[in-house]
Fold Cell wall-binding repeat protein.
Amino acid sequence: MRRHWKQATAFFLTAALVTGSSSFAVFAEEAQTEAEQKETYIAELLSEEPVSETADTEKEPDTTPEISEGDKTVEEAVTEATSETETETVTEVISEIETETATEVTSEVNAEPASEEQKNAKQSRSDFPSLYPDEYYYMEMFTYVGENWSIGIRSTMKPGETIEIGPKINYNYDVDGEHHADEFLDFYVEWEIIEGKDAISIEVNKENNQRAYLTVNEDADECEVRIKAHIMHQNDDGSVEELECYGGSSERVITIDKEYVPELIKDLREGEDGKLYYYVGDEIDAEFEGIPNLKYQKDKYYIKNGTVATDMNGLYLIEDERDETTTGDRYYFFKNGKVDGGYTFTGLAEYEDGTKFYIEYGVAVTDLNGPHWVSTAVDDGEKTTVDRYYFFTNGKVDTSFEGIVEVNFANLLFYKYYIKNGTVATDMNGLHWIADELDDTTTGNQFYYFTEGEVDKGFVGLTEYNGGKFYIKNGTVATDMNGLHLIEDALDETMAGDKFYFFSLGQIQNAYKGLALYDNEWFYLENGYLDTDMNGIVEYNGGKFIVAAGRIAREANGLWQDPKDGKWHFTANGQLQTQHTGIASYDGQMFYIISGELATNYNGTIKHNGVTYTVVNGQLYK
């Protein structure tokens, strides 16, 4: 159901009980159930679209339901309810009216289907009676001890006990359609004992006339007593009026039980010296040491010698027997004796033995395991930035772990880090060989390229490792890189300039000497990279080839002179034709070739194409 306006919430104060025997106990047994639903504006229910159980489709009433003259108005019903001996809550009154009205609406829906115009029409708030006026006061009752408070008045007391009671008032009003609720302080209370005048007495607090002390007489019999608070306001002209309060109840019923044993409340109270003292009932407990289960405190404190141990700062191991709030030993992070359960410190804290723990809300997170990003500072008196991953075991930085860990974000982004001494090894850079037992992210030994302890997937290029050179891609050696590859200067941190390198499984083969194919061309390699200074004959795979500037001279055909020894060779596509014996032409002359080489030592005659030639030093003459 939609709500058009907001009902102000009550101010909640912690309860405490003052006994005649000087023992304190505080209770909050009487919950204010009406407050949970009093915001509901009854016209809201009427503006809903009720559905008949027998109807096939949703229908709306075509007329606004009315409350007949014979019926009670909402205001009359509420007024009557609050005045009955057996007090009926506002919520119950509203519930009855809602049920009756909804039944009438449903009957009308079944009687006649609504038109389209009626379905589209919106009923305004002014069409229905309002539960509250535009401006009103709202009251809640409380019990006190000092400034500690609890909603509701104790429902059970024993003879001789005293409690301090009092109301809180909210002033509710609308401004420009928005609802406001402000605490109203300009009032005092006149208390009335409706039933049980012989059993109890009420004395107004002389320092605060909004509160009073309710005492059960020592000789009181077991019975029920009823009290009422009249909220009084003095106007500017000096006249006094009683304020009418909507919501809450100005009356309370208290049962007197001689056998009743009140709970001894554990609480902290501020002394005149400004210190917080630990009370059990109305007595300071100087014997207890540890973290007590305080009744009205969500925070945790370490108590010693009856007061908060304000000298406790940093991380402490609190054993189970000294912690009433939980079971088992636990590490807590304290500030001035208080467990720092807020947001002031989250991160690493160091224990006295040097062990570091991850702290959230003042407690070591003992279920934290594996890598975890810490973006805070170690609280060691000086703030030291530690934005990095740490490796945890049961919430403790695990300095014994060493190896590769993987961190993923939403199963989309994956990062690997090398952990040593409990955190990322930021001094780890370059290529490293990681043994299988140090890497749970994969199987087998593996090369990784690191930048400050993180596997650097962004680095691409050559790097050196243990005298060798490797090509890195995606954070590891590119083992699919084989043969001759041109590496640009920007990708080579080992040498300057663009160079051809010969690879096998991503590693430059420094010992390799010979020919290698690249882009349908053959090149000569020395020490694993292209030797552009090479000019001459190179033997490869049983053949001999002419190399010029480090490349096989495939354009070389016919006679070719070796610049190293001056010998002439017969070639085809840059390869020496050692199987050839016969005549070869060069520069208009003919020469005699034996086994692919010019026969400069041959002198004599030969017959070629039916003609006999004289051969002098391998050259033919007629």
Q: What stands out?
A: The first strand starts at residue 17 and ends at 19. Residues 90-111 form the longest helix (22 residues).
